[in-house]
Amino acid sequence: MVLVNKVPMVELASGIAKDADVVVVGLACASGKDVLVGLPDDLGRTLGRTFGADVASVAAGLGASSKPGTTVALPAPGGRRVLVAGLGDIDVTAEQVRRAAGGALRVAAALPGTQPLTVAVSFDTVGPQVIQGVTEGAILGAYTYRPNAANAGVGVVQIVTSARRTEARPAMDAGVATATAVCQARDWVNEAPNTLYPESFAAAIKEYGRAHRLTVDIMDEKALAAEGFGGLLAVGGGSVRGPRLVKVTYAPRGATKHLALVGKGITFDSGGLDLKQRAGMYIMKFDMSGAAAVVAAIAAIADLGIKVRVSAYGCLAENLPSGTAYRPSDVLTMYNKLTVENSNTDAEGRLVLADGLALASEEKPDLIVDVATLTSACTIALGERVAGLMSRDDATVDRILDAAETAGELFWQLPIPEETRAKLDSKVADLKSSSNPEGGALTAAGFLSEFVPRDLAWAHVDIAGPAFNEYEPYDYVPAGATGVAVRTLVALARSLAG
């Protein structure tokens, strides 16, 4: 499966075209006063005559505000709709315009109609980062997994800017490639687990990789058994749908750095024999969000021609209870020959990641990053919108936090305390897979660190909170899959390329 929904076509415009069905303008705070941003004089005069009052006053009367996250529709003449989106402070950042464009396009995409809409986004945007932010926000805000029959959504987005095309076009292209990859990750995560399982997910990745001129290698159960991938085989052993390990490679000429990305790909997590409660099991199709993120990110990196070698590993399995399921107290031999006493079959993600990390380490990349919906403990610590970041060295943490800030994603560093390793001591194996529940996210990171040699830079990103939005949509984030981490990984690759 490659993109359930068509991403809107995005084009640059020096002004608002006559064929625009919807015009999005901003409302920003300047010296304590809300001012309209991006409203052309001619449209302002037309609206003023229609309303019998200035546009800013009418917008304010309808509830418009410079507060980020607000979008108000104005009554518009001639069928053209005008949306006023809150921008925040007048000195906008990329994330401000990303949020404003996303919220407005979400409103536009829900408008009734049988023909796809053309939406002009006019925020007086200049500067590459801001133009990229508007582009990403518009595409992400327009996203719907299953379009409603009552509306046709958004077909074209026009980014109105006074910047020179030589400056604006690369920024827009970067936004399109990155946001399209996020949408692909969302599509995979949103798909039902009876149709997206290890084998079908691997096949979808192969098709996706071919479309982006990437090399894709897939290991099935027989190959995994022959090579000794004990974590993947154990976790996937309870399902009739066997596990897969997928490697996607991008190797451009001239690349001097190598980035390895390892993603948890549990296509459905019942908890195994340590069965989850019903309420906790319902959204567990999202437990492959990490694999979706790393594969989508490598495609965007390739599309943008970023000069860094990237290897992405999807560790795919379905965790189900059965007569062949692995058990608590089983001793597993992992790919790097470490033995692990399994403590809990619902702590399966770290086992498949351990195999992937050990394999990725063999190539001695400059940086390894694993991405996973790993622990509810991380969600308890950081909430539903912030990803946890753990590493063995501050330089790696700083690089990834910088990438997340550039991308507009919320990451927060958590520690891996010195005493963590002692909690994983086992009397029957080299280590246990988990320990007491206190500090569970930290213990999980400590476990994973055992599968990456100390001389390699490595970081673990726990996206259990922000990967799936169970509540109302906001800004450019829909209900359901969010595609979190894709944008940060693309920004990280760019920073490595220099």
Class by SSE composition:
alpha/beta
Which spans have pLDDT < 50 for at least 5 consecutive residues? none
Number of helices: 16
Return the CATH architecture of the largest domain: 3-Layer(aba) Sandwich
The largest sheet, given as strand count, sense and whether it forms a barrel, is: 8 strands, mixed
Per the CATH scheme, the topology name of the largest domain is Aminopeptidase
Q: What percent of the residues sit in helical stretches (DSSP H or I)?
A: 25-40%
Give the number of DSSP strands.
20
Strand content: 15-25%
Outline, from the CA principal axes?
elongated
Distance from first to last alpha carbon: 34 Å
CATH top-level class of the largest domain = Alpha Beta
CATH superfamily of the largest domain: Zn peptidases
* Mean pLDDT level: 95
**Total domains:** 2
Give me the side-by-side strand order of the main sheet: 8-9-11-10-14-18-15-16
Walk me through the structure.
- With 498 residues, the protein is an alpha/beta fold.
- The protein has two domains: 9-180, Leucine Aminopeptidase, subunit E, domain 1; 191-497, Zn peptidases (Aminopeptidase, 3-Layer(aba) Sandwich).
- Helix content is 37%, strand content 23%.
- It contains 16 helices and 20 strands.
- The chain has helices at 41-51, 55-61, 94-109, 128-142, 165-190, 198-211, 221-227, 230-236, 278-281, 289-303, 349-361, 376-382, 394-407, 420-423, 440-449, 486-497; strands spanning 9-13, 22-30, 33-37, 71-74, 81-89, 117-125, 154-161, 215-219, 244-250, 258-269, 309-319, 331-333, 339-341, 367-372, 387-391, 411-413, 431-432, 458-462, 468-469, 480-481.
- An eight-stranded mixed beta sheet has the order 8-9-11-10-14-18-15-16, sandwiched between helices.
- α3 (94-109) runs parallel beside α4 and α13 packs across α16.
- The longest helix is centred in the middle third of the chain and has 26 residues, at 165-190.
- The radius of gyration is 24 Å and the shape is elongated.
- The two termini are 34 Å apart.
- The model has no long low-confidence stretch (mean pLDDT 95).
